[in-house]
Structure formats: C-alpha cells, structure tokens
Amino acid sequence: MGTTEAITTGEGQEAAALLERAREAVDPELRRALEGLPGPMRRVAMYHFGWEHADGSPAAGSAGKAIRPALVLAAARALSGGGDGPAGGVPEGAVRAAAAVELAHNFTLLHDDVIDEDVTRRGRATAWTVFGLPDAVITGDAMAALALRLLVQDPHPAAAAASARLASCVIELCAGQQADCAFEQRPHVSLDECLAMATAKTGALLGCACALGALYAGAGPDEVEALDAFGREAGLAFQLIDDLLGIWGDPGHTGKPAGADLIARKKSLPVVAALTSGTAAGEELAALYAGPMAGDDVRRAADAVERAGGRDWAQAHAADRMGRAVQQLSRAVPDLGAAGGLLALAEFVTRRTR
What we know:
By secondary structure, this protein is an all-alpha fold. The chain has helices at residues 10-35, 39-48, 67-80, 86-89, 94-116, 127-131, 133-152, 159-184, 191-216, 221-248, 251-254, 260-263, 269-275, 280-289, 297-307, 310-332, 340-351; strands at residues 120-121, 124-125. Strands 1-2 form a two-stranded antiparallel ribbon. α3 packs antiparallel against α5 (94-116). The radius of gyration is 20 Å and the shape is globular. Mean pLDDT is 90; it is low at 1-9 and 83-87.
C-alpha cells in the first residue's frame, strides 16, 4: 500500500483493543445524553443502540464498532503525547467530543435506514420497522441536536470550535446523502461526482472526528486541518471497501442480502467505475440497471462490474487513498510512531470484511 507499508497485521489487534476501549469510555456518556430525551424518543434511541428491546426491557446488544469515537480519542492521544490520564491518556473532555461524534453518526444511520428502506441493522430489525417512520426520523433529529448540545455545554476551551466544525460537517454529510439519493434517479453519473459524494457522505465525519480529537489536544490550525484531511482520505477508502462489500460481501457478515447495493441499483463507486469504463461489460451493466433486478440479474450485474474493472479499480483506489491519508497524518505527527492508534484504525476500516 505504498506509504502504508509500515502497517502490519499487528494493527488489527491494536485496532480491536482501541475500539473496545473507546466503547467502554464513550458508552456511559452516550447513555447519559440519551437519558435526557423525552420518553418516546429515548425508547427509540436506546433500542437503536442495542441497549433495550422494543418493549423497553434491557438488552445486551451492540452499539456498533465505535470507529468514529475511537478516531477522536486516538487523534487526541497522538497530538497530546498520551500519558496516564483518564481514558488511557486522552485529554480531558475528549470523551464528550467522541460521544458527540457518535451521536451525529447514529442520527445519519436512523435516517439512512428509512431512506434505503433497510429492515435490519446490527443483526435485528431497524428502528423504523419497529416504531414507525415518524418516530425514527424524529429521534434521528433529536440525536443530531444532542450531539451539538454536548459540545455547546462543554466548558473545554475547544468546545466552541468543535461544535462549529461538527455542525458544518453534519450539513456536508447531509448534502452527500442527498446527492447519493439523486444519483439513483439519474442515468449518468461521473466518477468525479461519485467521489465527491462519498467524500461528503462518509469522509467528512471521519475527518471531523480526527479534527475534534486534535482540537481537544490543543493542536494548532495546521495540525487540525491535517488530521481532518487524514480522516477524509481514510473515510473515502472506507467507503470504497464498504461499496465492495455491498456487492460481494458475505451476508453472514454484512447482515444484508448478497448484492444488496445492486438490488437497489445504487450508483456506488465500483458500479460507476464500471459504467464509465467504456467497455462492453459496462454497457451490459447499464442495461441491467435500466430495469428492476430479477432472477439471475444480481449475479450477472456483479459479474459485469468485475469484468468492466470496477472491482479492481475500487481496491486500487482504496489503497491509494490510504497512502494519501498517511501523508496527511505525517504533516501533523511527523513521527508516525506516535500515531500508531490512528494508523491501526485506518488500516482496520480498509481491511474489514463486514
């Protein structure tokens, strides 16, 4: 992977440990925030996070991988020199910022499930299928407000800049989601348009997570922007891998039907690379995308994407984006040995299988 050659498989274990530590540090803050919601919204939110069943009884479900809060904490640790403070050397207040990012992320998940009409998430029924569309959408809105309130009410000196950055990020990722939906109605989408959409929809929040960690570590403007750029590049690599899983992922791991993105005729990055390839396989894919997928069409579409070069392009571009991410990180942390957590997490999200 070019400049990421120093990353080894050992980072997989390190990333797992970082994610677990982030979950342990952030979940109590998240629970406190959600407990402040009015009853009906609190119930939807607690169900969505996996902490309650639909009837309100306690559940031992998963609240997700905690990738974004882990990035906040890892960035804060890398730029503050670590140490033996709370949450494993994380600067004071960074856990609250990590919780805010996780709330913003889950606001988008609640809305995405409605938009995409997804019926499962994290191995069980999505909130909108259990509580109805209005309650799911409104609870998502409330989560976005909660995220900003956590930062606005934080006495930390970085809180004002962090809340402004998160608010701008939410607007950007909403624009990315809107573009993603619009692409489904358009017969032609360029690869540059698709890359810009993915950067806004996925890269923006990962970049914001890293930038907030830098802010809470007291970093200067150049370091904050470099961490934001690192997260954006890693986020685009993340989206490329996610798009590959949307076509070729194992349903037993992804929790979604095989070829889910093809069934929905999504203009994902591998698909758009194939559609714009100028190949016969690309034309075949365009013909399949012109009508509803039925019978053997999903398998044929996946095969067409691969023969048109979409799969290879996405894999190669993900590696290239990771190389760019490491270059950006080195601007803020010249000694990459001090940024091992960030590198491990970036490697994790681009090597995952689910």
